[in-house]
Amino acid sequence: MAEGSESKQSAVESMMEKISEKIHGHDSSSDSDSDHEKSGSASTVQSKIFRLFGRERPVHHVFGGGKPADVFLWRNKKISAGVLGVATAIWVLFELIEYHLLTLICHISILCLALLFLWSNAHTFIHKTPPRIPEVHLPEEPFIQVASALIIEFNRALKLLRDIASGRNLKEFLMVIAACWVLSIVGSWCHFLTLFYISFVLLHTVPVLYEKYEDKVDPFAEKATIEIKKQYAVFDAKVLSKIPKGPLKTKKV
Protein backbone atom coordinates (compact mmCIF):
# COMPACT_ATOMS: atom_id res chain seq x y z
CA MET A 1 0.00 0.00 0.00
CA ALA A 2 2.78 2.38 0.92
CA GLU A 3 4.52 1.69 -2.38
CA GLY A 4 1.30 2.44 -4.34
CA SER A 5 0.74 5.76 -2.53
CA GLU A 6 4.36 6.79 -3.17
CA SER A 7 4.01 6.00 -6.90
CA LYS A 8 0.82 8.10 -7.05
CA GLN A 9 2.53 11.02 -5.35
CA SER A 10 5.50 10.85 -7.75
CA ALA A 11 3.09 10.76 -10.72
CA VAL A 12 1.24 13.81 -9.39
CA GLU A 13 4.50 15.68 -8.82
CA SER A 14 5.70 14.89 -12.37
CA MET A 15 2.38 16.15 -13.77
CA MET A 16 2.69 19.37 -11.75
CA GLU A 17 6.23 19.90 -13.01
CA LYS A 18 5.11 19.48 -16.62
CA ILE A 19 2.26 21.95 -16.14
CA SER A 20 4.55 24.52 -14.53
CA GLU A 21 7.10 24.11 -17.34
CA LYS A 22 4.39 24.73 -19.94
CA ILE A 23 3.18 27.82 -18.07
CA HIS A 24 6.68 29.24 -17.76
CA GLY A 25 7.47 28.48 -21.38
CA HIS A 26 4.29 30.24 -22.47
CA ASP A 27 5.13 33.24 -20.29
CA SER A 28 8.66 33.46 -21.65
CA SER A 29 7.41 33.20 -25.23
CA SER A 30 4.82 35.89 -24.57
CA ASP A 31 7.48 38.05 -22.94
CA SER A 32 9.78 37.59 -25.91
CA ASP A 33 6.93 38.41 -28.29
CA SER A 34 6.09 41.53 -26.32
CA ASP A 35 9.76 42.54 -26.25
CA HIS A 36 9.99 41.97 -29.99
CA GLU A 37 6.87 44.07 -30.56
CA LYS A 38 8.27 46.82 -28.34
CA SER A 39 11.60 46.81 -30.19
CA GLY A 40 9.78 46.82 -33.52
CA SER A 41 7.60 49.72 -32.48
CA ALA A 42 10.64 51.57 -31.13
CA SER A 43 12.49 51.03 -34.39
CA THR A 44 9.51 52.28 -36.42
CA VAL A 45 9.22 55.33 -34.20
CA GLN A 46 12.95 55.97 -34.52
CA SER A 47 12.75 55.63 -38.29
CA LYS A 48 9.98 58.24 -38.39
CA ILE A 49 12.02 60.82 -36.46
CA PHE A 50 12.89 63.85 -38.59
CA ARG A 51 16.60 64.50 -38.99
CA LEU A 52 18.15 67.68 -40.33
CA PHE A 53 19.06 67.52 -44.07
CA GLY A 54 17.37 64.10 -44.26
CA ARG A 55 20.37 62.29 -42.80
CA GLU A 56 20.04 58.68 -41.65
CA ARG A 57 23.49 58.31 -40.06
CA PRO A 58 25.07 59.89 -36.97
CA VAL A 59 26.89 63.20 -37.35
CA HIS A 60 30.27 61.50 -36.88
CA HIS A 61 29.62 59.22 -39.89
CA VAL A 62 28.41 62.18 -41.98
CA PHE A 63 31.85 63.79 -41.55
CA GLY A 64 33.57 60.60 -42.69
CA GLY A 65 34.04 58.87 -39.34
CA GLY A 66 37.83 59.33 -39.31
CA LYS A 67 40.29 61.76 -37.79
CA PRO A 68 38.77 64.87 -39.47
CA ALA A 69 35.42 63.97 -37.90
CA ASP A 70 37.12 63.58 -34.51
CA VAL A 71 38.65 67.06 -34.92
CA PHE A 72 35.39 68.72 -35.98
CA LEU A 73 33.37 67.05 -33.20
CA TRP A 74 36.01 67.62 -30.49
CA ARG A 75 36.60 63.94 -29.71
CA ASN A 76 40.16 64.95 -28.77
CA LYS A 77 39.91 68.40 -27.21
CA LYS A 78 43.65 69.11 -27.33
CA ILE A 79 43.95 68.48 -31.08
CA SER A 80 40.75 70.40 -31.88
CA ALA A 81 41.80 73.34 -29.71
CA GLY A 82 45.26 73.30 -31.32
CA VAL A 83 43.83 73.37 -34.86
CA LEU A 84 41.46 76.20 -33.96
CA GLY A 85 44.31 78.09 -32.24
CA VAL A 86 46.58 77.79 -35.29
CA ALA A 87 43.77 79.02 -37.55
CA THR A 88 43.16 81.96 -35.21
CA ALA A 89 46.89 82.82 -35.17
CA ILE A 90 47.02 82.76 -38.97
CA TRP A 91 43.95 84.99 -39.21
CA VAL A 92 45.39 87.49 -36.69
CA LEU A 93 48.74 87.47 -38.45
CA PHE A 94 47.43 88.11 -41.95
CA GLU A 95 44.22 90.05 -41.28
CA LEU A 96 44.84 92.16 -38.18
CA ILE A 97 48.63 92.65 -38.37
CA GLU A 98 48.39 92.65 -42.21
CA TYR A 99 51.41 90.42 -42.68
CA HIS A 100 51.84 89.18 -46.25
CA LEU A 101 52.11 85.48 -47.07
CA LEU A 102 55.12 85.77 -49.38
CA THR A 103 56.96 87.91 -46.84
CA LEU A 104 56.25 85.42 -44.07
CA ILE A 105 57.48 82.46 -46.15
CA CYS A 106 60.68 84.29 -47.10
CA HIS A 107 61.42 85.36 -43.52
CA ILE A 108 60.87 81.84 -42.16
CA SER A 109 63.08 80.38 -44.92
CA ILE A 110 65.86 82.90 -44.22
CA LEU A 111 65.77 82.19 -40.49
CA CYS A 112 65.78 78.38 -40.86
CA LEU A 113 68.49 78.30 -43.53
CA ALA A 114 70.71 80.72 -41.60
CA LEU A 115 70.43 78.72 -38.38
CA LEU A 116 71.16 75.41 -40.11
CA PHE A 117 74.07 76.89 -42.10
CA LEU A 118 75.70 78.40 -39.01
CA TRP A 119 75.17 75.23 -36.98
CA SER A 120 76.69 73.06 -39.74
CA ASN A 121 79.84 75.24 -39.94
CA ALA A 122 80.24 76.02 -36.23
CA HIS A 123 79.72 72.52 -34.77
CA THR A 124 83.50 71.96 -34.52
CA PHE A 125 83.94 75.11 -32.39
CA ILE A 126 81.03 74.49 -30.06
CA HIS A 127 81.84 70.74 -29.81
CA LYS A 128 78.39 69.52 -30.82
CA THR A 129 77.21 67.13 -33.48
CA PRO A 130 76.16 68.68 -36.78
CA PRO A 131 72.44 68.85 -37.51
CA ARG A 132 70.91 65.86 -39.23
CA ILE A 133 68.79 67.20 -42.06
CA PRO A 134 66.37 64.47 -43.18
CA GLU A 135 65.59 63.78 -46.80
CA VAL A 136 61.96 64.61 -47.46
CA HIS A 137 60.06 62.85 -50.24
CA LEU A 138 56.38 63.66 -50.71
CA PRO A 139 54.27 60.64 -51.70
CA GLU A 140 52.32 60.93 -54.92
CA GLU A 141 49.28 58.85 -53.99
CA PRO A 142 47.62 61.26 -51.49
CA PHE A 143 47.98 64.20 -53.90
CA ILE A 144 46.54 62.11 -56.75
CA GLN A 145 43.58 61.07 -54.59
CA VAL A 146 42.88 64.66 -53.54
CA ALA A 147 43.20 65.89 -57.12
CA SER A 148 40.85 63.17 -58.42
CA ALA A 149 38.29 63.94 -55.71
CA LEU A 150 38.45 67.66 -56.52
CA ILE A 151 38.06 66.95 -60.23
CA ILE A 152 34.98 64.80 -59.58
CA GLU A 153 33.37 67.51 -57.44
CA PHE A 154 34.30 70.22 -59.94
CA ASN A 155 32.76 68.27 -62.83
CA ARG A 156 29.63 67.65 -60.75
CA ALA A 157 29.34 71.39 -60.05
CA LEU A 158 29.80 72.20 -63.75
CA LYS A 159 27.06 69.70 -64.68
CA LEU A 160 24.74 71.23 -62.09
CA LEU A 161 25.40 74.74 -63.41
CA ARG A 162 24.80 73.54 -66.97
CA ASP A 163 21.47 71.96 -65.99
CA ILE A 164 20.43 75.16 -64.20
CA ALA A 165 21.47 77.40 -67.10
CA SER A 166 19.52 75.23 -69.56
CA GLY A 167 16.31 75.99 -67.67
CA ARG A 168 15.51 72.46 -66.52
CA ASN A 169 14.99 73.18 -62.83
CA LEU A 170 13.57 76.51 -61.74
CA LYS A 171 13.84 75.71 -58.03
CA GLU A 172 17.59 75.05 -58.20
CA PHE A 173 18.02 78.17 -60.33
CA LEU A 174 16.39 80.35 -57.68
CA MET A 175 18.41 78.70 -54.90
CA VAL A 176 21.72 79.28 -56.70
CA ILE A 177 20.82 82.90 -57.49
CA ALA A 178 19.86 83.53 -53.85
CA ALA A 179 23.07 81.86 -52.59
CA CYS A 180 25.26 83.94 -54.94
CA TRP A 181 23.44 87.12 -53.90
CA VAL A 182 23.96 86.36 -50.18
CA LEU A 183 27.65 85.55 -50.78
CA SER A 184 28.10 88.79 -52.68
CA ILE A 185 26.66 90.75 -49.76
CA VAL A 186 28.82 88.89 -47.23
CA GLY A 187 31.89 89.34 -49.46
CA SER A 188 31.36 93.10 -49.46
CA TRP A 189 31.46 93.11 -45.66
CA CYS A 190 34.79 91.31 -45.16
CA HIS A 191 37.81 89.89 -46.96
CA PHE A 192 38.07 86.34 -48.24
CA LEU A 193 40.42 85.31 -45.42
CA THR A 194 37.97 86.56 -42.79
CA LEU A 195 35.13 84.73 -44.52
CA PHE A 196 37.22 81.56 -44.65
CA TYR A 197 38.10 81.92 -40.96
CA ILE A 198 34.44 82.42 -40.00
CA SER A 199 33.50 79.30 -41.97
CA PHE A 200 36.32 77.38 -40.28
CA VAL A 201 35.15 78.45 -36.81
CA LEU A 202 31.54 77.56 -37.63
CA LEU A 203 32.69 74.15 -38.88
CA HIS A 204 34.37 73.56 -35.51
CA THR A 205 31.45 74.77 -33.36
CA VAL A 206 28.10 74.17 -35.08
CA PRO A 207 28.41 70.38 -35.66
CA VAL A 208 29.44 69.64 -32.06
CA LEU A 209 26.62 71.81 -30.70
CA TYR A 210 24.14 70.15 -33.05
CA GLU A 211 25.32 66.69 -32.02
CA LYS A 212 24.80 67.66 -28.38
CA TYR A 213 21.34 69.23 -28.82
CA GLU A 214 20.04 67.40 -31.91
CA ASP A 215 16.91 66.15 -30.11
CA LYS A 216 15.90 69.79 -29.60
CA VAL A 217 17.08 71.14 -32.94
CA ASP A 218 15.47 68.52 -35.20
CA PRO A 219 11.83 69.22 -34.19
CA PHE A 220 12.38 72.95 -34.71
CA ALA A 221 14.01 72.25 -38.08
CA GLU A 222 11.07 70.04 -39.04
CA LYS A 223 8.61 72.86 -38.31
CA ALA A 224 10.75 75.34 -40.24
CA THR A 225 11.00 72.94 -43.22
CA ILE A 226 7.23 72.46 -43.31
CA GLU A 227 6.68 76.22 -43.19
CA ILE A 228 9.22 76.84 -45.96
CA LYS A 229 7.54 74.22 -48.15
CA LYS A 230 4.16 75.88 -47.57
CA GLN A 231 5.51 79.29 -48.51
CA TYR A 232 7.21 77.85 -51.60
CA ALA A 233 3.95 76.16 -52.65
CA VAL A 234 2.13 79.50 -52.34
CA PHE A 235 4.90 81.26 -54.31
CA ASP A 236 4.78 78.53 -56.95
CA ALA A 237 1.02 78.79 -57.29
CA LYS A 238 0.93 82.60 -57.48
CA VAL A 239 4.14 83.43 -59.39
CA LEU A 240 6.09 80.50 -60.86
CA SER A 241 3.13 78.71 -62.40
CA LYS A 242 2.14 81.91 -64.27
CA ILE A 243 5.50 82.26 -66.03
CA PRO A 244 5.03 81.28 -69.69
CA LYS A 245 7.16 78.44 -70.90
CA GLY A 246 8.29 77.80 -74.44
CA PRO A 247 7.13 74.79 -76.45
CA LEU A 248 9.03 71.60 -75.86
CA LYS A 249 10.96 70.41 -78.88
CA THR A 250 10.66 66.76 -79.80
CA LYS A 251 13.96 64.95 -79.86
CA LYS A 252 15.00 63.28 -83.08
CA VAL A 253 15.84 59.63 -82.67
* Fraction in helix: over 70%
Quick one: biggest sheet?
Answer: none
Radius of gyration: 34 Å
**N to C succession of SSEs:** HHHHHHHHH
Query: Distance N terminus to C terminus?
Result: 103 Å
Total helical segments:
9
Biased composition (Basic and acidic residues): 15-39
Organism: Hibiscus sabdariffa (roselle)
Subcellular location: Endoplasmic reticulum membrane
Protein name: Reticulon-like protein
Fold blueprint:
Blueprint: H1 2-47, H2 59-62, H3 67-72, H4 77-96, H5 101-126, H6 140-165, H7 170-189, H8 192-212, H9 214-238
Helix pairs in contact: 4-8
Q: What do you see in this structure?
A:
The model is unreliable at 1-6 and 25-47 (pLDDT under 50). The protein is mainly α. The chain has nine helices and no strands. It is found in: Endoplasmic reticulum membrane.
